[in-house]
Amino acid sequence: MLRAIAGLVRAEGRVFAGSTAWLDSERGVDLAPERRSVGLVFQDYALFPHLTVAQNVAYGGRTRAVELIRSYGLTALAGERPARLSGGERQRVALARALSREPAVLLLDEPLGALDAQTRAHVRAELRAHLRASGLPTIVVTHDYEDAAALADRVGVLVAGEVVQLGTPTELVAAPANPFVARFTGANLLEGVAHPGEAGLTEVLLDTGGAVVAAEPGEGRVGVVVYPWDVALARESPSDSMQNHLAGTVESIVPVGNRVRVRVGPITAEVTAVAAESLRLREGERVVASFKATGVRLVAL
Amino acid sequence: MRSPFGLLLAGATTLAAAFLALPLVALFLRIPPGVLLDQLSSDVAREALVVSLKTSAGAHIIVLLVGTPVAYLLGTRVFRGRGLLIGLVELPLVLPPAVAGIALLAAFGNRGLLGGSLEAFGVSLPFTQAAVVVAIVFVSSPFYIRQAAASFAAVDPLLLDASRTLGRGPGRTFLRVALPLAAGGLAAGSSLAFARGLGEFGATIIFAGSFAGVTRTAPLAIYAELDRDFDVAVALGALLVVFSIAVMAIMTLLLSWTRSSSRSPFPFASSISDSTSA
């Protein structure tokens, strides 16, 4: 898709930058890539190996090159060849180079894909700052929801070329349009049959056994969406305001930073490492996963 | 490796090495080095070398100027008839040089296809120095174009795309990205083509004849002096051997230099068609 916007690939349809037509199949408009004001950052950065960092950045235009080299912290590296740089440094060069052309639009293709897990979070924060600073309309393509949520004001989920949902990251988490979006944003998805229950709540009989109560209306086959961080763990069924308690066996415990993702039966819960330690969770043990009825979303299946 | 098979391998290798080395060594041992150098400064030799260098250089410029765009097209674009073009470009590689000569006569000779039209312009091609240039271009261009196309194909297409998105059109992209990155391979192909052109005999003698000082290149002079002055022939031969070894050394250096500095390794051109992805 990014290649089509940039004009690197033949496409049918319309691509407009503001009111300027870059592609308009009906009117026979199809501008060559060099005539479209794009800055494209490729997944593997595509830095020119035979040019130095400074020459790479200046390739799109000399005017802003010096300023860009400075603001991206590349002054010390200016005379180096790309092969000697780390992944994060290369990304900065690629970004600076794309901006040297003073484009109208910025396109990034999996900007964090080429990085190892450790550098990723750090570079992501930097990238976010750079994108905010550039002030340009930007499209980032990524498979990682966390990256999308961290970098973007609005996130669009594409499935088979169709935009399935477009909204802020919060909206996507709060009200996923369909099971795919729910899974994509990292939620648990259980399937079952819903029918109206007591006190205006909906009861869902899960395929995997057990029942769940939701504060949303629903009927028939539904997907039950619960976010891992909304799930609490305990050794026994706690007596509290939570309506939903699912007993299960701990199947896996995966530390992620200062948190732990615990899979209990069909549900994944995310708790702090401290909490997990104090519960002395071990694989194979029985625990109870609890979550509120108001923390449950229902999506039509 | 004392097995009979091992001995067989060793034996075959020794035989082959001896067979290939002997004629080359003989060239240098047949006459003493002092006499060798003397012969090279004889009129016959100097005349032949001048003709060779002029025609090879002229032909090579044409090969580079016309061949490079062709190679770029073959190496970076997919189009209808590409296979046919590749076949056409590679044909002179397998064509017997004598056949190339007669074919050139058939095309450009006085009774040839274009002969009449050329005469109308007052141009008669066969048996002139220009004819030598034509013959050399014909037989040596495939060597350059194949290697050049493979070198261009080995340049990461994403780099060319990046150049376009940065505002450079196809022409500037070629000059600033494709050419520098393919340069090593181009130079290697250029050396090979030049060496081939310098050594051309069959097509030259048929299409251009062997007129001393005009069309008698070094290889043709060797043939002419065989009966008259064997020593001169040997001297010219030895010189061409030295030159060929130099070309090989240069090519190896250029190719290994390219391999270490480019992003993707490319094998020495075995075929253009399998080094470009559709």
Overview of the molecule:
The complex is a heterodimer of chains A (301) and B (278). Chain A is of the alpha+beta class and 301 residues long. Chain A folds into two domains: 37-153, P-loop containing nucleotide triphosphate hydrolases (Rossmann fold), CATH 3.40.50.300; 186-300, Beta Barrel (OB fold (Dihydrolipoamide Acetyltransferase, E2P)). Helices cover 25% and strands 33% of the residues of chain A. Chain A has helices at 2-6, 53-58, 65-71, 87-99, 117-134, 145-151, 169-174, 179-184, 273-279; strands at residues 14-17, 20-24, 29-30, 38-41, 105-109, 138-141, 155-159, 162-167, 188-196, 202-206, 211-214, 220-226, 232-234, 244-256, 259-264, 267-272, 286-291, 296-300. Chain A is elongated and about 65 Å long. The model of chain A has no long low-confidence stretch (mean pLDDT 86). Chain B is mainly α and 278 residues long. In chain B, helix 5 packs across helix 7 (129-153). Chain B is globular, with a radius of gyration of 22 Å. The termini of chain B are far apart. At the A-B interface, strand 4 of A face helix 8 and helix 9 of B.
Shape of chain B: globular
Q: Which sequence of strands runs across the widest sheet of chain A?
A: 11-10-9-12-18
Strand content of chain A: 25-35%
User: Can you tell me the CATH class of the largest domain in chain B?
Assistant: Mainly Alpha
Number of helices of chain B: 12
Number of helices of chain A: 9
Q: For the terminal residues of chain A, how far apart are their CA atoms?
A: 28 Å
Measured by residues with Cβ under 8 Å of the partner chain's Cβ, the largest interface is: A-B, 24 and 19 residues
Report the average pLDDT across residues of chain B: 86
Assembly status? heterodimer
**What's the CATH class of the largest domain in chain A, please?**
Alpha Beta
Question: CATH topology of the largest domain in chain B, anyone?
Answer: MetI-like fold
Radius of gyration of chain B: 22 Å
| Helix content estimate of chain A | 10-25%
Strand fraction of chain B: under 5%
Unreliable residue stretches of chain B:
262-278
SS elements, strand count of chain B:
0
